[in-house]
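Listing S7. Sequence submitted for prediction.
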Amino acid sequence: MILVTLAMQKHPLGVTYAMWAGVGTAITGLIGVWAFGEVLTGFKVVGFMAIIIGVILLNQPVKASSPRVQRLRSRTSSH
């Protein structure tokens, strides 16, 4: 839980939760393959890659394309 708290200092709650759930799911799946001998299929590999790519994309900065986005970003950065 300490890591989630630290992540929430840099990211909004929704992004933090998505990253936490995605990384936790990927790690659990990899432990299943490594520790319990589950079969690593092509679908699982694609799934793990999708999770990793999703987490990377969630960490990319958002470009303010409209005045509304700029207002929202200024509100969250002032806290």
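Caption to Listing S7: primary sequence and predicted structure tokens for the chain studied. Residues 2-77 form one domain. The chain has a mean pLDDT of 84.
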